[in-house]
Amino acid sequence: MQAAIDEAQAGFDEGGIPIGSVIVRDGLILGRGHNRRMQEGNPVLHGEMDALQNAGRLPAHIYRECTLYTTLSPCPMCSGAILLYGIPRVVIGENKTFMGEEELLKSRGVELTVLDDPRCVKLMDDFIKAYPEAWNEDIGE
């Protein structure tokens, strides 16, 4: 989770939404990324999507052996990618700021662990206080 938090901090430092993600197989990070929607002007470049992109093209069986770590509960788009690639485990830093599609993921057999990590909550709280309009745009309000 620390690597995902580091990615979230990097996003915050760039002026973006502090959500980070890493994809791990056998203790090795295959891909890492952070939400770069604001920085790149790309509405689909969430942390999980950035990590998948940075992992590159992998055989299907590799994804089925991975754990995805993300600092915030995955949105519908990112949850769809998790299901599409068959990632069996997701570790979530926090879901108090935003509750994503956890029920959908669980209903499809994805093992979820929610850490309620105060570092993840603080990153989001700090961002939302500083940039409420950007957060509201990101979550569709």
List keywords for this structure.
141 residues
Question: Would you summarize the structure shown here?
Answer:
This protein is α/β, with parallel strands linked by helices. The chain has helices spanning 2-13, 37-40, 47-55, 60-63, 76-85, 102-107, 118-130, 132-138, and strands spanning 20-25, 28-34, 67-72, 89-94, 111-114.
Question: Order of strands side by side in the largest beta sheet?
Answer: 2-1-3-4-5
Q: Profile the largest sheet.
A: 5 strands, mixed
The arrangement of helices and strands along the chain is: HEEHHHEHEHEHH
Proportion of helical residues: 40-55%
Beta-sheet strand percentage?
15-25%
Q: What's the number of extended β-strand segments?
A: 5
How would you portray this structure in words?
The chain is of the alpha/beta class and 141 residues long. The protein contains eight helices and five strands; from the N terminus they run αββαααβαβαβαα. It has helices at residues 2-13, 37-40, 47-55, 60-63, 76-85, 102-107, 118-130, 132-138, and strands at residues 20-25, 28-34, 67-72, 89-94, 111-114. It has a five-stranded mixed beta sheet. β1 (20-25) and β2 form a beta hairpin. α1 (2-13) packs parallel to α7 and α7 crosses α8 (132-138). The longest helix is centred in the C-terminal third of the chain and has 13 residues, at 118-130. The mean pLDDT is 95.
SSE topology:
Layout: H1 2-13, E1 20-25, E2 28-34, H2 37-40, H3 47-55, H4 60-63, E3 67-72, H5 76-85, E4 89-94, H6 102-107, E5 111-114, H7 118-130, H8 132-138
Parallel strand pairs: 3-4, 4-5
Antiparallel strand pairs: 1-2, 1-3
Helix pairs in contact: 1-7, 7-8
